[in-house]
Sequence to fold (337 residues):
Amino acid sequence: MNKLLFLAPLMIILMLAGATFMRNNVLKDRISYWGDVVKKSPGKPRGYNSLGLAYAGTGRFDKALELYEKALSLYQMRRGTKEGLYNVYVNRGLAYVKMNFYDKAIDDYNKAISLFPDFAVAYNNRGVVYASHDRPEEALEDFNKALILNPNYVEALHSRGYYYLSTGRYDDAIRDFTAAIRLNPDDPSLYGIRGSAYEKKGEHVRAINDLDRAISATPEEPFYYVNRGLAYDGTGQFLKAIRDYNTAILLAPKTAHTYVIRGITYGKQRLYDNALKDFNQAIALEPDSAEGYFNRGYVFHLTNMHAAALADFKQACSLGEKTACDFLRRGFKKSSR
Fold:
């Protein structure tokens, strides 16, 4: 099984700057506080913007949009600095992203940039939207612009690092995450994502060190256990890898990908029954799991269940798994008769 072409897609979480989302009790206090501010000063736009942020933090985006609209109308009537207007456009853009209204988000970021082309936040946020919607050149241009304007902008380093990570430029990703860590050494998420980059690059010991630190600070984050498990797997420490995958599954039991990678590690130990159970579970959770079908098919192939393997490779290929298509093109059907 050590020669298997098992697949572990990159888990990417892109950051947006603007609204700061806090714990529910803090947000409730902020809703109460800013609601009182709006009642006492209904003609001041800052209160509506801040109350919108509080509602957005609780997921009440429709309410947040109403408040942002009121803040915009009040700011637009004001003379002088437009910085408050800029902030509302940035925050409303983030709400649009959360609501999957990406074109509207980009439009708001464009408006913010037109007001203050030397402010970095809107470039970073617009870049994140571009990166997640297959516009990589524009995304990188925006991240670079944000960092030219503010070389110490941690969120932009984080965002560009994710971009590099997603495009396989691991050294560049590690460079950006390392720069972000220098600026903000107490943020465990930076160690967690740099650990993922080290794991992808094959520097497993460094990955484990970073992920140990991330897990110590944030033990409830399944993403860190998954990536540390991959790093342990890369060093042949299969039992530790399984332990981490088990923890990740306890924290997020409906994530199909974790079952797939645990199945992969079971397969490397020739624990084929355990591997099949995991691939079956992944497919049950995600019926369009190309990696689930491909890896189950490979185990079927290794255990001489060629008809079942062929069926799974065909299904994986139909779902876009290129490795399965390559297997079929190389004459798997003929060799398995």
